[in-house]
Amino acid sequence: LVGGGPGDPGLLTVRGRALLAAADVVITDRLGPRGVLPELAPEVEVIDVGKTPGHHPVPQSRINALLVEHAHRGRRVVRLKGGDPFVLGRGGEEALHCLAHGVAVEVVPGVTSAVSVPAAAGIPVTHRGVTSTFVVASAHDEGAELPAALLTAPADATLVLLMGVTSLATTAAGLVAAGRSPQTPVAVVERGWTPSQRTTVGTLASIAQVCRDRGVESPAVVVVGAVVALRESLGDLTARPAAAS
After folding, report:
1. pLDDT at 208
2. What pLDDT, on a 0 to 100 scale, did the predictor assign at position 53?
């Protein structure tokens, strides 16, 4: 289980690259460093099981089965996942399934988008004098109740929401109802660590409308909290120029 990081091939770990170079089969997601796939040897079988919002052409049960099937055929299998396999990446489920079917598993941690994508936009999730706490949660299901960790987080904690674009209006309203100020800064960072990275900034009161006006789409990371204001001084911090914000 290889964590590929947020998308820039340069953020894939040395161990991850070594395992990819030795693979017979690579089962890959939509997110992550797809730019490394053309570097694989021609005989490597690449299986794309990528999911898009609301469209999962290969269900998780089938992904689990593919890992076991190819491993039982004596093939070296790399499951290439975006970010980190164990941060809202279902890597634990895949590891459990493999181990239950006699397949040994090695996990290679990846650079999680929950921290690295805000950093690319000049937003540290913690900052001395602002906050020493951040909470990471999925905000994927529109209409579902917000995770308790978001509602009970300290008032100064940074909230990092993954898969949260579709439900952004509901999430923002829920946070205000739970006591967060409507003027709390919010940033939505699309396609972090890619040439088309774009950041949209607003407040809990305005961010949903601002994102609709700008056509914000997944994949994106939502950051809520006072640290968002640091972007005004830091700007984008990627190695390559990002798209205008």
Report:
1. 97
2. 58
Point out the catalytic residue in the list 29, 81, 84, 236: 29
SS3 44: coil
Of the pLDDT bands very low, low, confident and very high (cuts 50, 70, 90), residue 239 is: confident
**CA angle at residue 197 from 216 to 160, to 5 degrees?**
70
141 vs 146, residue with greater confidence: 146
Residue 163 annotated in active site: yes
Which of residues 132 and 139 earns the better pLDDT score?
A: 132
Average confidence (pLDDT) over 48-55: 70
CA angle 245, 11, 215 (to 5 degrees): 25
CB neighbour class for 84 (10 Å; exposed up to 12, middle 13-18, buried from 19): buried
Tell me the whole-structure pTM to 2 decimals: 0.91
Cα 200–Cα 204–Cα 205 angle in degrees, nearest 5: 105
**Whole-angstrom Cα distance, residue 186 to residue 208?**
10
CB environment 182-195: b (16+ within 10 A), e (fewer): eebbbbbbbbbbbe
Q: How confident is the model at residue 121 (pLDDT cuts 50, 70, 90)?
A: very high
Distance from C-alpha of 49 to C-alpha of 57, rounded to nearest angstrom:
7
Query: In whole angstroms, how far apart are CA 198 and each of 28, 90, 117, 187, 241?
Result: 25, 27, 11, 10, 11
200 forms beta bridges with 188
Given the residues 8, 84, 163, 236, select the one marked as catalytic: 163
d(C-alpha 114, C-alpha 121), whole Å: 12
Residue 29 a catalytic site member: yes
